[in-house]
């Protein structure tokens, strides 16, 4: 923690504006990395739509949006400053923050995913103890096609042999799905709990005023990450680190647990959970988001040719094949990972250096990587499209065949005159 505080103190003392924010000419992205340009623009559109919905509907909806943005800033900033979890590098977008490590659109991903999922799940009218887990599952459904296509199209890269992300699914770490489920459920739990503890309003999405709601949003933004990390301890860290069980099994155990909790609640629904006939205007922006999001990834998996991609930016530092650094676990076990990317012995099928005349030299952390062709393009099309269809089906059921949007004002009660 002292190292984090020192880093932040040094950063705050910087006078170099470009460390805080740096702009990139979109023409270079369009030329070498067109799909990443699409990704960035897509998240600006999704963020605008969620923002528009939140502030159009009002009440606590706008505070949910703000809290999810604060949560995203917390997660991303802490990730770059803690060595044990600093294991990924984003491609360079048009707007980069924090020493060109954080693309602006990645911050906006959090309200894009969490806000959309939270509102859809709120229409299902689940019990309060089940709702956070449903949001976690709903966020994972949005994330899966993004994660599969994102790593294949070099929107980011992962550390080559970090034990926490070593087990992969189409080169996506299983822990990435675990992360989205655990952190989104923790976010929802703290957001709802803070309302119960601090707010006196009767309606779930009725605002309790700027001061109270700001406190709730800040609490949610700061403490969702620690609670999300705690969810890794009983299933992932114990089974994976102590018992050497594959991360896929750990994730399936988490998903199964979430699903059973949600299903238990949905088996005994509230009376207003199956009304149907939901006003499309009340959730118009969210309908647009879901259709746009899944359509984009179906389009990308069919049309994009990753073998022509060149991604220049920060990646794992090139260097020694033997130097190791420790990776500490909650149970006191010390694992290890290579400090550098070993050019003669790395296991990343999504990129190589064949498009370059000369490979990067030892010590390089800013260099170009080249995309690789699909090992089986048809398989990618089927997998990504299947998850998109599954996601569309879930969100249709949640948003169009469940209850109405929660009101932002308490219902007025008429009193008979004596």
TrEMBL record:
Residues 17-398 form the DUF7802 domain. It comes from Patella caerulea (Rayed Mediterranean limpet). Keywords: Membrane, Transmembrane, Transmembrane helix. InterPro entries: DUF7802. The chain crosses the membrane at residues 33-51, 63-82, 102-121, 133-157, 177-194, 215-239, 245-263, 283-302, 377-396. This is DUF7802 domain-containing protein. The keyword Membrane applies. It comes from the Eukaryota.
């Amino acid at each position: 923690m002292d190292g984090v505080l020192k880093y932040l103190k040094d950063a705050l003392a910087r006078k170099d504006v470009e460390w805080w924010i740096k702009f990139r000419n979109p023409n270079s992205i369009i030329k070498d990395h067109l799909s990443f340009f699409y990704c960035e623009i897509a998240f600006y559109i999704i963020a605008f739509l969620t923002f528009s919905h939140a502030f159009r509907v009002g009440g606590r909806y706008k505070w949910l949006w703000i809290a999810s943005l604060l949560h995203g800033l917390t997660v991303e900033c802490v990730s770059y400053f803690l060595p044990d979890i600093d294991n990924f590098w984003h491609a360079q977008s048009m707007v980069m923050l924090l020493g060109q490590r954080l693309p602006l659109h990645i911050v906006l991903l959090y309200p894009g995913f969490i806000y959309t999922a939270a509102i859809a799940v709120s229409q299902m009218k689940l019990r309060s103890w089940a709702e956070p887990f449903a949001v976690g599952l709903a966020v994972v459904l949005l994330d899966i096609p993004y994660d599969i296509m994102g790593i294949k199209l070099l929107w980011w890269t992962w550390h080559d042999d970090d034990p926490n992300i070593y087990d992969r699914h189409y080169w996506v770490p299983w822990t990435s799905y675990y992360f989205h489920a655990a952190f989104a459920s923790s976010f929802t739990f703290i957001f709802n709990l803070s309302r119960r503890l601090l707010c006196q309003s009767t309606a779930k999405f009725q605002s309790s005023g700027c001061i109270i709601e700001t406190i709730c949003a800040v609490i949610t933004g700061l403490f969702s990450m620690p609670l999300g990390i705690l969810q890794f301890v009983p299933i992932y860290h114990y089974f994976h680190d102590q018992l050497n069980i594959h991360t896929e099994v750990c994730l399936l155990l988490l998903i199964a647990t979430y699903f059973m909790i949600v299903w238990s609640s949905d088996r005994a629904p509230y009376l207003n959970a199956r009304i149907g006939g939901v006003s499309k205007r009340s959730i118009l922006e969210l309908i647009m988001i879901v259709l746009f999001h899944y359509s984009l990834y179906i389009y990308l998996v069919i049309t994009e040719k990753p073998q022509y991609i060149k991604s220049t930016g920060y990646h794992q530092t090139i260097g020694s094949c033997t130097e190791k650094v420790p990776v500490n676990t909650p149970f006191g076990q010390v694992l290890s990972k290579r400090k550098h990317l070993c050019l003669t012995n790395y296991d990343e099928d999504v990129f190589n250096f064949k498009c370059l005349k000369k490979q990067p030299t030892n010590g390089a952390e800013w260099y170009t990587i080249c995309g690789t062709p699909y090992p089986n393009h048809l398989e990618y099309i089927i997998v990504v499209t299947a998850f998109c269809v599954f996601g569309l089906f879930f969100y249709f059921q949640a948003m169009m065949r469940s209850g109405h949007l929660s009101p932002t004002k308490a219902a007025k009660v008429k009193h008979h005159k004596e």
